Amino acid sequence: MKKRLLLPLLFSLISVAQASNVTNIGWSDLQGKVAPYHDPFKELTGEQLYNLSLYARITGIKKQSPEKVTEAMQKEAEDAKVMLENEKIDIAYMFEQRFIIMKKRQQAAMATNKLLIDTNIEIAGYMLPLEFDGELVTEFLLVPTIGACSHEPVPSPNQLILVKAENAIKANSLYMPIKISGILRTTAQAKDLYLVDGQKNIDLSYRVDNALVEPFIGTR
């Protein structure tokens, strides 16, 4: 009789111990560390960025297909160049930095937090379903904001989690607020997301398999 009474207590203690090992994290915790770098584009104003991109676009077209550049386009490019030079913007240097900075930004967007890999984590976010079984969701993206990946920009790969639920969940609405818990794994893959306005290919840095999914109510 004592053994029968002890067993439920033992299982209860195990559950409490497992719950205490869960690390509650926020989205910023998922960002990995990268070597610091100087991004000269952050120092430009919106107007300067516009003029630089305008000049780059038209000069690029002129180089590839000069017949497509009209007099009006050429005038726009020249005006943009003059404005940039008057504001002491080194156009040649900025053009050299484009691909260097782009690569560094991509590295920062993909970088994972190695301290969290293989850790039992809990995080709140919004469900963006990928696979349905009737009204039940079996696989989804956990995203940090409402509208992410649809009418809002796609977050960085290290700000998305591919989730495979332990049990299928009934999706009451798109972007349903939830929290998940499970072992965080790193992954480098892409998933197709089918939306009303078309298909998108989403790059991912994280996944959680067999996740426990619960509704979430509260301040995130």
TrEMBL record:
Key words, A-Z: Signal
Protein name: DUF3299 domain-containing protein
Entry annotated with the keyword Signal: yes
Signal sequence region: 1-19
A Pfam family reported for this protein in Swiss-Prot or TrEMBL: DUF3299
